[in-house]
Design a protein that fits this description.
The structure is a single chain. The radius of gyration is 32 Å and the shape is elongated. The model has no long low-confidence stretch (mean pLDDT 87). The chain has one domain. The protein is built from 6 helices and no strands. The two termini are 62 Å apart. Helix 2 crosses helix 3 and helix 2 runs antiparallel to helix 4. It is mainly α and 161 residues long. The chain is 71% helix and 0% strand.
Length: 161
């Protein structure tokens, strides 16, 4: 998947854009769902790791640098300092990043959909049509016709005075 290309809009091929849009949107939606499922698993693994480290700290506090009877605060600190816990949290953070990326992609594709809808409306209003000369206009005078109007607005007249 090439997100930068998938997000581009070709205003002159709206029919192809609309034909391809549902499948592209579905691909990113499926990837988002997979990433969310993976994040749920990683969160569960991190919670299990935290519980295991908590159990180990309570069983052998000296192994984790706690002297005497451990308090809840020292146990929590030992958990947060453990390598296993930090590895599980890092894995969870990486997967959450992936979820955020796919979520952003899906939202951006929703914006593309709205852009396509608006382009279709503009197309229906002949926005993309080339300018045509009025029937009574001489084609040799086309350059004059393209020039901005020389009629002054009230504001321009007031500024001159």
């Amino acid at each position: 998947m090439d997100f930068s290309n998938d997000l581009k809009v070709d205003a002159y091929n709206l029919d192809l854009e609309w034909v391809n849009f549902p499948s592209v949107f579905m691909q990113y939606s499926e990837e988002l769902a997979k990433a969310q499922k993976e994040a749920d698993r990683a969160k569960l693994a991190a919670e299990v790791c935290e519980a295991q480290v908590d159990k180990n700290v309570r069983a052998d506090p000296a192994k984790y640098g706690i002297e005497g009877k451990p308090t809840e605060a020292t146990i929590k600190a030992a958990i947060h300092l453990s390598v296993e816990y930090n590895e599980a949290q890092e894995a969870l953070n990486e997967i959450r990043y992936k979820v955020n990326q796919y979520g952003n992609a899906v939202r951006a594709l929703e914006h593309k959909k709205r852009a396509l809808e608006n382009l279709v409306i503009l197309h229906g209003q002949s926005y993309f049509v080339d300018p045509k000369l009025p029937k009574q206009m001489n084609p040799d005078r086309f350059d004059e016709w393209k020039q901005p109007s020389k009629v002054k607005t009230r504001k321009q007249k007031e500024e001159e005075n």
